[in-house]
Predict the structure.
Amino acid sequence: MEDKKTCLYDRHISLNAKMVPFGGFVMPLQYSDIADEHIAVRTTCGVFDVSHMGEVLVTGPEAERFVQHIFTNDIAEAPVGKIYYGMMLHEKGGTVDDLLVYKEADDRFFLVINAANIDKDYAWIVEQSKGFNVITENQSEYYGQLAVQGPQSERVVEEVLGLPCAELVFYTFKKLEVAGETVIISRTGYTGEDGFEIYGSHKFIVAQWDKLIESGRVKPCGLGCRDTLRFEVGLPLYGDELSDEISPIEAGLGIFVKLDKAEFIGKEACAKQKAEGVTRKLVGIELEGRAIPRHGYEVVVADEVVGTVTTGYNSISTGKSVCMALVKIEYAKLGTPVQIRIHRKLQPGVVVKKKFYEKSYKK
Amino acid sequence: MAKVIEGLFYAESHEYVRVEGEYGYIGITDYAQSQLGNVVYVDMPEVDDEVTAGEEFGAVESVKAASDLFSPVSGTVVEINEALEEQPELINADAFENWIIKVKLSDPSELDNLLDAKAYEAICE
């Protein structure tokens, strides 16, 4: 099947972006240089086309009960305007997807899911919704989405786009009536920096993109630095750190799995993993040298393969070669010496916290 | 436009050999470095390792990806460019000046299988 294009495809081409397939879309990997774009987000402001992300609206009298049923986090008594991060799980604890849930009203929830999983997730959501008095609608084709990220984001969004956002606190959103349509703006992101995500029609999103680029105050940023940024602050990417076979408990995301909820799909499996302990765990590894650990490389201890690298880079902010890896639990303790096989050679390293750079959220 | 230098031997996989007597200096071409983007790591063999024409001997890596290096010729590694261990970006500054390995050629007739500057320039277009 041919990769889909986002509403900003022509803009990427005219900016000479290097385009790559990602999650069923053809997306910009970089416009200039991954490191330059990465640094722009850490120090000033960058804009990402994230229109490939999927959106599902759940409405109806049993909308809350249904979302509670499929979602690991607890949205009971949530105020309108609040956003929750969590997962949808299989019965056995593997992850269908990780997602954001926006509470629009007591009977209305907006779910933001990964591009590569849109079809799988929507089919799964529809299947689970049988027996619930809810309406589910896949709105992925309608919405375009921008992520404006970096310490100057608030000023840029207010001054360049004229969208009031200063009063939004972290992980909240509001709807705005702009240019004859309802758009959504949230203080969220995937970079470890302050920032906003904006959802609207294709026409609206293209117009905002043009304003941002023309202002000269925002660097266009591709998926390349989106990955290096999220990786440095230890945020998971579905397909690397989470998958149908990896549970959030194994990935160290247990705080988003609320076992005190009455029920949700996968609860028993997660409760068991918590009670009995997991057999493997996601860790950080820092290497002594500069060789770069990459997805799929083996983690080795005493000639035995004890795990696999999920994401790795030479960290742009720190210059160190670091990775996240899923390893057997015996080797997951901080300070454990391990090796990673990189181009035939075993490179020495040590288990560290899986956060290589401090987040600077505005809370 | 990528630079191509006369007098070097080129492989279609975008490595070059600069021959001096019985030795060859092997690196990646200017075109290769421009396609790769900023080099952040160079994986090199060790001195005394054997390399074989057409076979992988290391990798050059950008932030995002590792690209294997294929040796244009066979021989024994007599020197590696140690400057690249700390400053891999030298390859972006001048790919032809900053060779990666120096080998003692075991079969100079292999050079006949490689491209000259003009033929190489043609495949970069």
